[in-house]
Design brief:
4-stranded antiparallel sheet, 0% helix, 6-stranded mixed sheet, mainly beta, globular
Length: 117
């Protein structure tokens, strides 16, 4: 079955960096676009970044443009989110998500990112 496992979250000071990873299994990873979302306490889940199946096209939320970078390694079935110049408002649980595979999408369990001094 489809599995997505995020890792790399943690506590970081403002201005710091983290790289999140999402390891995928159970489907043909190279055929599907992938996205990163985040959800802060008492807020709705929001799209952070997305990447096409080949990695040739990416998109970012305005709030992270110029600071975050999404990438993927289809040989390793993994999608990454490099986060630089982190701000306290980036604090959230970060999730990776597949594009539609058949009739549904799939989510990972999430990884906590806390930006605080």
């Amino acid at each position: 079955q489809v599995q997505l496992v995020e890792s790399g979250g943690g506590l970081v000071q403002p201005g710091g960096s983290l790289r999140l990873s999402c390891a995928a299994s159970g489907f043909s990873f190279r055929m599907y676009g992938m996205s990163w979302y985040r959800q802060a306490p008492e807020k709705e889940r929001e799209l952070v970044a997305g990447i096409a199946s080949t990695g040739g096209s990416t998109m970012y939320a305005d709030s992270v443009k110029g600071r975050f970078s999404i990438s993927r390694d289809n040989a390793k079935n993994t999608v990454y989110l490099q986060m630089n110049s982190l701000k306290p408002e980036d604090t959230a649980v970060y999730y990776c998500k597949t594009d539609f595979i058949g009739w549904r999408t799939y989510w990972g369990q999430g990884t906590q990112v806390t930006v605080s001094s």
